[in-house]
Design brief:
365 residues, 16 helices, 73% helix, 0% strand
Length: 365
């Protein structure tokens, strides 16, 4: 029970209402430009789920969003708002690239564990500093993580233009990894079974994302550390009286959050693009905020919300191709509406639902 609402309402009905209203408003925008919203929905669904390659792209996008959503959720449970996922994942990309370049040509199954560790360590270290500043110096976590996003981007610009860029190359990026070192695509395993994923970049990172969901669930709801995280997030004063150090938990939460979002680099740098370049995160760190809000900071909800945003990204690309009047900017606006109703306006319908359930209980009492 959350407040006056059953769990199925809080975790299921309210997110569904928010998404429905968001798409209803988006439908009005589509009507205003002279298009049929039902055709738009049909094209988006077909583009996201109607054929193998579309499914592959949808799951590829969802993989990043799962990592980012889990990272935000862990911080949320500790009462923190980590919006530094972009910067943390960017630094994680550096760790992955350094491992892959150092072991270039070695088999992926040997390189991948080291790359995963590097991604998590680099991004966790980057998240540690804002967490420590919040815990021990009173600096606000939101301001710190925003600043660290810019610092990470600036550092990467310098490294890719002056240090890591091969001699004679114009583009600010590293050299491409050897084929043997790249994380395999899922199509290499799925296509022989009779399901064609086309040229989608879906790779083994999707399995890492699934494992991360399970591990975060066990951490938050099945361990003493998870209990401490939730206690600090709910009431730091009570946590202190219970013998829990809120400062220590703040730092630990940020380290775990950073480590999770850093896994985006495995999907993008080692699994998809096979090199490090500027902006490889593609805004996934910010989308993770909406994914965590919509998923109520629960791994199952996060996975479903990530899938929805993956469908929006892939279906939106298909829609922009088939409907020239609906530009890519409008697709971004639709995504923004979902974020608006899932985040900023999340409590719009909660008071009415609470009153309804209170009335229903009183009538049956």
């Amino acid at each position: 029970m959350n407040g006056q609402l059953p769990r199925w309402v809080d975790y299921g009905l309210i997110p569904l209402i928010n998404v429905t209203i968001a798409f209803f408003v988006a439908g009005l925008v589509v009507i205003a430009i002279g298009e049929n919203p039902l055709d738009v929905v049909r094209i988006m669904l077909r583009g996201a789920l109607g054929y193998g390659e579309g499914v592959g792209f949808t799951l590829y996008y969802a993989t990043d969003f799962i990592f980012a959503g889990l990272a935000v959720a862990v911080a949320f449970h500790a009462g923190l708002f980590n919006i530094g996922g972009e910067g943390q994942a960017t630094i994680a990309g550096l760790g992955v690239a350094l491992v892959c370049l150092a072991l270039n040509g070695q088999p992926w199954w040997l390189v991948a564990p080291l790359a995963i560790v590097a991604a998590m360590v680099f991004s966790a270290a980057w998240a540690y500093v804002p967490g420590a500043l919040q815990a021990y110096r009173g600096s606000h976590i939101v301001i710190n993580t925003i600043m660290f996003n810019f610092i990470a981007t600036s550092a990467m610009v310098y490294l890719l233009t002056h240090v890591l860029k091969p001699m004679g190359q114009m583009a600010p990026e590293t050299r491409t990894f050897d084929v043997a070192t790249r994380l395999p695509f899922m199509k290499d395993y799925i296509t022989p079974l009779g399901y064609d994923l086309g040229q989608s970049p879906l790779n083994l990172s999707i399995l890492i994302a699934a494992a991360a969901c399970v591990l975060v669930y066990l951490l938050i709801w099945r361990t003493r550390l998870g209990y401490a995280l939730r206690t600090v997030g709910t009431n730091p004063t009570a946590a202190l009286y219970a013998g829990i150090d809120p400062k220590r938990i703040t730092v630990i939460a940020m380290i775990i959050s950073g480590a999770l979002v850093g896994l985006i680099a495995i999907n993008e740098v080692m699994g998809t693009h096979h090199r490090l370049f500027l902006g490889f995160t593609g805004g996934a760190g910010f989308v993770g905020i909406a994914v965590a809000l919509m998923g109520r900071s629960h791994p199952i909800g996060i996975a479903l919300a990530a899938l929805l945003f993956g469908m929006l990204y892939q279906g939106g690309a298909e829609l922009a191709f088939e409907k020239p009047t609906i530009t890519r900017d409008m697709i971004v606006a639709i995504q923004g509406l979902v974020i608006l109703f899932a985040g900023a306006l999340e409590h719009m319908f909660r008071p009415a639902l609470e009153r309804m359930f209170i009335t229903a209980r009183a009538a049956t009492a």
